[in-house]
């Protein structure tokens, strides 16, 4: 099974070198966990982290969460061993591999072919393990469309702000925050470019980490910016960030109710019984086919978040 169906509002990073956190993460209300072999794990700890991750995936209880492992990037000496050890050990308990610092389509193609070989050898469904591609530098962003279409396994494009800031020589140390010297959002273009690729190719778009983990309001502000653009979710590094991400990347209850109402009303008014109307008033708002499309987006986000509507539509002749 791929993880394509999972909502990705909160994506919890868990260092593979920390068995206590691998254990604790199972009880936290994140939509996705990614067990990290890359930057949260010191080089000397990587072999041990692979073993911890295999054990946590095989023996842990991850129901309701997409299970993802972030391997090391393809300029490192560790990637192939990460993939082989994790998939051989726990490939049947894994939804996707996250590949960081992807710079060109061939990186994804390498992972796709390697996964296909492993799945065939291990008797797993071919194509069952998805790929999440992390865009972390200018080269990756310039090639993002080719990366998005390099394999049908690609499910998600992720913004890696910390590495991206370093790669651009940005004059800041606070990841994702606005810069006092810049009269706008320095990340706007990058976020939008990733979002365009994700929407063009029907993939999820996920925002990266906010490292000031004690500053929950700072996290909320950064998350609200990418959520407002249309991002599906964001990484979380601490339990306190999970609740905020789940809230920020879900619609407000009133918006969810309104979206469901628009869908019902539009279905009624366009029907024979409703008068075959294409544009009608719903309260003070004129709704038409474009309203239906916007409402579908909000309704889908609400349904994915498990929201329950609190209003229903009554046709005017039944009022
Ligand atoms: C995450 O990997 C980042 O670089 O922000
Ligand atoms: Mg990174």
Q: Could you walk me through the main structural features you see in this protein, from its secondary elements to its overall organization?
A:
- The chain has helices at 19-25, 46-59, 79-90, 105-122, 138-142, 144-148, 161-168, 188-200, 216-229, 239-248, 253-270, 289-304, and strands at 10-15, 32-36, 66-70, 96-99, 130-135, 154-159, 204-207, 233-236, 280-282, 285-287.
- The chain is α/β, with parallel strands linked by helices.
- It folds into 2 domains: 10-248, Alpha-Beta Barrel (TIM Barrel); 253-318, no CATH class.
- Strands 1-2-3-4-5-6-7-8 form an 8-stranded parallel β-barrel, surrounded by 6 helices. A two-stranded antiparallel ribbon has the order 9-10.
- Helix 3 (79-90) packs parallel to helix 4 (105-122) and helix 11 packs across helix 12.
- It is globular.
- Magnesium ion binds at residues 39, 100, 136, 160, 162-163.
Task: Report the helical percentage.
Answer: 40-55%
Q: The CATH topology of the largest domain, please?
A: TIM Barrel
Tell me the number of strands: 10
Spatial shape: globular
What do the pLDDT scores average to? 95
Number of helices: 12
First CA to last CA: what distance?
Answer: 46 Å
Which architecture of the largest domain per CATH? Answer: Alpha-Beta Barrel
Which hetero compounds are present in the coordinates? glyoxylic acid, magnesium ion
Biggest sheet record:
8 strands, parallel, barrel
- Total individual domains: 2
Structural category:
alpha/beta
Order of helices and strands: EHEHEHEHEHHEHHEHEHHEEH
CATH superfamily of the largest domain: Phosphoenolpyruvate-binding domains
Radius of gyration: 21 Å
Q: Strands of the largest sheet, in order across it?
A: 1-2-3-4-5-6-7-8
Give the class-level CATH name of the largest domain: Alpha Beta
* Beta-strand content estimate: 5-15%
Low-pLDDT ranges: none
